[in-house]
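Translate structure to sequence.
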């Protein structure tokens, strides 16, 4: 049994994790804004085509796939780091 402390995540891994949280969080908030806006009648008479609504409608369309890609990148980076640490600890 070894008493080694686990390696802290790199700065890039932390940045990616915060990016995932931010992009997915903003996309989910935009999704709920569209639901609430529809419930209160903001979409009547092409209301979603004016003002900030086109951006709010597009955010989940691009943000959720981007968040998924960022999660995959983060998982690959973490796996590579752990494999490298396991190789170093074996030697």
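Result:
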């Amino acid at each position: 049994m070894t008493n080694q402390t686990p390696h802290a995540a790199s700065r890039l891994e932390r940045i990616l994790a915060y990016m995932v949280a931010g992009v997915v969080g903003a996309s989910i908030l935009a999704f709920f804004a569209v639901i609430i806006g529809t419930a209160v009648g903001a979409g009547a008479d092409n209301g979603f085509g004016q003002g900030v609504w086109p951006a709010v409608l597009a955010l989940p369309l691009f943000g959720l796939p981007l968040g998924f890609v960022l999660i995959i990148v983060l998982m690959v980076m973490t796996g590579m780091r752990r494999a490298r640490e396991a190789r170093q600890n074996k030697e």
